[in-house]
Amino acid sequence: MLIIKHYMEFSTLRELGLQGMRLAQASYTCWIVARSYRGLAVAGRAPVWVVVEYKRVGSIVANPYAKVGPNTANSKAQHAVVRSNSRYTARIYIPPSCLTMKVFVTGSTGNIGTSLVKDLLAHGHTVVGLARSQAGVEKLTSLGATPLYGTLSDLPLLAKAAKESDAVAHLAFNHDFSDFANSCAAEQAAISAMGEALIGSGKPLVGTSGTMSMRKGKLASEKDERDVQDPLVQLRGASEDIALSFANKGVRACAIRLAPVVHGEGSLGFVQLLLKSVLDSKQVAVINDGKNRWPAVYTSDAARAYRLVLEKGTAGMVYHAVGEEQILVKDIAAAIGRKLGVPVVSKTAEEAAEVYGFLAGAVGADNPVSSDWTREVLGWEPVGKGLIEDIEDGLLDGVQVGLKL
Q1: Residue 75 contacts by C-beta under 8 Å, 6 or more apart in sequence?
Q2: Which stretches of 6-65 are DSSP H helices?
Q3: Nearest-angstrom CA–CA distance, 182 and 186
Q4: How does pLDDT run across 229-248, given as a tens digit for each residue?
Q5: How far apart are CA 72 and CA 32, in angstroms?
Q6: b/e code 368-389 from CB counts within 10 Å (16+ = b)
Q7: Could you tell me where in the chain the CATH 3.40.50.720 domains are found?
Q8: Where in this chain does the entry annotate a coiled-coil region (predicted)?
Q9: Which sign does the torsion angle of CA 241, 242, 246, 251 carry?
């Protein structure tokens, strides 16, 4: 049974026809009933059920709800067609996955953002990407996206871009761990500005957080609560809460929790934490026996999860971009050690703090996470390399070791 989530409004048959053409170009099948039409069949790969509402200014002049499908289009059209030259508005309810959208993407020049931009464009959407440098502008232009020069602190700019778009994907974050609180505050202000611009629109707003926010030591699902005891989790977790709060204000607001290790296509994620000890001491340091677990996901798989949530996510829900539920950190360290020719050493929590600073807690975190529900409801199936395989195949080749996660 189709749950109606979106509608587009047309006041002329020309506008209606243009949207039909877009649907055809996106390879969807949709039956549209319009004045003087007996049923417009748009060729494609899968039938989509729609509900059409016909109105004349001030009054309803025909059956307001005509369910139309491939086998009944003509007969239903007889009941819905209005034989008049008056101006009408046709409201066509179509699942968002059938529509090509103009998507505003923050963080669009990062590794995950770049992969998302490519994926959105490949599926018929148009993209406006936030770029904070000339290099970013040139990168987005080369991909076929429209660059918007600015930063997360340009709140009026963000609000305007969100309002003028059909959907918003927020991936940007200032990874300055020396001023983490202010980075979180800036992100929260940006999310609020974009969310407020979308109030009452029904448009998608997809925020970003991480699975490291979940309670540690057990397999965490999308429905589980965050770790409310961790002050760092609370700082970043507030961004997720702010994004989801707009679900009660007429916005299709969702959140994606990324695995701490997003890898491939230039991404390293938390693997870079372990590389810090290689840079400092020519060894890979794990905490105690290294049997704590991290989830991981390949970059293009994570990007595809964002697109699917934009297209068909449910307001107020959280999704997990997790390809591998649990990988022992000692196994990750061993793969790094083999590749770089350095030993793996064990450190106590106190010793690890000297190597990793305040991020030692993340290195020692036990964070197994499930994405079963996300896969089921989105039809998302990760296909990228596993983390260990990726390391062995050259993930670390030519990578500049640093702390930009």
Answers
A1: none
A2: 13-25
A3: 6
A4: 777 777 888 999 999 999 99
A5: 12
A6: bbbbeebbebbebebebbebbe
A7: 100-392
A8: none
A9: negative
Provide CB contacts within 8 A for 132, sequence distance 6+.
109, 149, 150, 151
Query: How far apart are the C-alpha atoms of 138 and 130, rounded to whole Å?
Result: 12
In contact, 321 and 259? CB cutoff 8 Å: yes
Distance separating alpha carbons of residues 136 and 225, to the nearest angstrom: 36
- Phi and psi angles of residue 63, each rounded to the nearest 5 degrees, phi first: -50, 110
Q: How many residues does the chain have?
A: 405
Token duo for residue 156: 């009026």
Measured distance CA(140)–CA(144) in Å, rounded: 6
Distance CA 171, CA 207 (A): 7
| Alpha-helix runs per DSSP H in 246-384 | 271-281, 299-312, 329-340, 349-356, 360-363, 372-378
pTM to 2 decimals?
A: 0.77
Distance CA 15, CA 26 (A): 17
Please, what CATH class does the domain formed by 100-392 belong to?
Answer: alpha beta
Q: Which single residue is written with the structure tokens 């940007």?
A: 172
pLDDT in tens, 58-107: 333 333 333 333 333 333 333 333 333 333 333 444 444 546 789 999 99
Closest C-alpha among 324, 331, 348, 314 to residue 223: 314
Q: Which two tokens stand for residue 325?
A: 């539920």
Contact 254, 315 (CB under 8 A): yes
In this structure, what DSSP letter does residue 64 have?
S
**What is the radius of gyration, based on Cα positions, of the chain?**
24
